[in-house]
């Protein structure tokens, strides 16, 4: 069998790479990382939100090539159902898919205004009203999920939803977004995961910076 690979771009800046990588880690699938340099044209377009077709991350496994993050999530759920990437209950499973779809296709102002930057920290960052509306919606999603599940993850146990929202957690940390206690506890749970700690350590070791994402306010 051909080796399993996951193509990713910058660990410091790429939200989509983080999602795909976490999904693969959550699934327990063994894979080899293939890193595309941030100065690669396609990787840069993905990170800077300049591409309508996002081809990173890309999972290659057992003859399949999957490059959309939700498609990766669903594929991994098929090949590794024991990992519990989706809740067992039909209604909760539908809810999980819905909020994953929402973060996958929406929150464009949040993405543009608060770009992922794990090495950055901007206390007192000015958040514009349209971005605040996106933040409020994310908080509503988290609040409802945690109230239903009791935590510590959105659906109690770790699912694809936690991988999909992990980059948002990092945005909130980077830009000093204030959270109510229950949501702050969830954010801390995500940041404390061994997988997140591994990713962040690697992100901080990256030598390359993308000037457009080094905001100063």
From TrEMBL:
**Taxonomy, superkingdom:** Bacteria
Question: Does the UniProt entry include the keyword Transferase?
Answer: yes
Q: Could you tell me which CDD domains the record lists for this protein?
A: GST_C_3, GST_N_1
Question: What's one GO BP annotation on this UniProt entry?
Answer: glutathione metabolic process
Give the matching Pfam families: GST_C_2 (PF13410), GST_N_2 (PF13409)
Key words, A-Z: Transferase
Q: Which residues form the GST N-terminal domain?
A: 4-84
A molecular function GO annotation: glutathione transferase activity
TM stretches of this protein: none
Full protein name: Glutathione S-transferase
Q: Which organism is it from?
A: Bradyrhizobium lablabi
